[in-house]
Amino acid sequence: MNGIQTLVAEGGGILHKRQLVALGARDRQLTWAVRRGYVRRPRRGWYTTFAPSDPRYIAVRAGGRLTGLSALALLDAWQWDARPPITVSVPANASRFRRLKGVRVVWDDRELSERGSTSSVAPRDALREALLETTFEQAVSLLDWAVNCGLLDHDDIPAFVAGLPADIARIEAWVDGNSDSILESVVRTRLLQRGHDVRSQEVLPNGQRIDLVVDGAIGLELDGKTFHAETFESDRRKDLEIVLSGRSTLRLSYTMVRDDWERVLAAIDAALGNHRQGPTGRVGNSGSWPRVPRRGTRLWRLRPPGRRLQPELPAGVAAAEGAAGAAGAAGRGGTAARRGRHRRLGTIFG
Question: Where is the composition biased (Basic residues) (predicted)?
């Protein structure tokens, strides 16, 4: 590895000429390293080891740093697209920046430009921007990820979203740091939107955890994109424990959740109907799944809390659920509800 290449790689993949000069590099060495292909120069004064297709290279070429979803993708944040559209943060007082096709530019305060690395804004700053540019369910999954990995504490969310549009503050009620993956987060959010009661990571008698429990009756197990042969036996034993605990079990794949959601819903409804009324029973969860409307440049809005719209259920099922809900509320107390592990949020979309 060339000496200049080593310096740039050790500096995070992107360094300015003045930083390299401070490390002992000379103009002749820099020119030679570029000509030999050891480093690239995306913009005057900047040197990088990243390929031209790398979002960090593109951000520097534009005159800024990655932010939003494109910055969080480098941290393996929970989002569907591993290569989201590129968003570049540029200081509000910047005089030189280059507009590039397909690149979204946001102008940020000078204070923000003092945080983060040479290629990306600080993770928390990227997360705030991502909440403004993504869908509601992915906004929830990103906050779930942030709490799960320790980037945020759940109690810090109100202060974290301060200064963003007022309705975003209400997203706190939807966040659950107990979620272990984007699948758990997205499925939980979608089912809560339909009015179901959803619990995350409920513990079985043998110590294993159910990914999601729906209406106290269905244990959902969610498998990622990669097959793990070493956990196959353990997963099937967990399925047995779920059934022995008095629940039905459904195991869903990444592809099912992402590409065949309507059929997944039909299976959940059928499983709930079978659990409540036997194989011939029909589930009555006929309330429509509310859609979040597009307004302006944001993809979602949260309506102020008000009357909750619950899905319609057959009279017998509704009565049984009401009695079960009253008994459960008396036993659970307020702590679990506050943490979002036993919630029926209903519909609060506008």
Answer: 338-350
Tell if the pTM clears 0.90, that is, is over it.
Answer: no
Which residue, 55, 50, 52, is CA-closest to 39? 50
* 183 lies in the same domain as 210: yes
Structural domain boundaries, residue 1 = 1-49
CA distances from 254 to 222, 227, 240, 286 (A): 7, 11, 22, 25
Is 79 found in the same domain as 44? Answer: no
Q: Which two tokens stand for residue 185?
A: 């987060």
Q: 68-71: list long-range contacts, CB under 8 Å, 24+ apart.
A: 68/104, 68/106, 68/126, 68/129, 68/130, 68/132, 68/133, 69/130, 69/133, 69/134, 71/120, 71/121, 71/123, 71/126, 71/129, 71/130
Cα distances (angstroms) measured from residue 275 to each of 9, 188, 201, 210, 268: 58, 20, 21, 17, 10
Cα 345 to Cα 191: distance, rounded to the nearest angstrom: 10
The tokens of 207 are what? Answer: 């110590």
- Give the pLDDT confidence of 261-299 residue by residue, as tens digits: 999 999 999 999 888 765 544 444 444 444 444 455 678
- Identify whether residues 82 and 210 lie together within a single domain: no
What total of structural domains would you count in the chain?
3
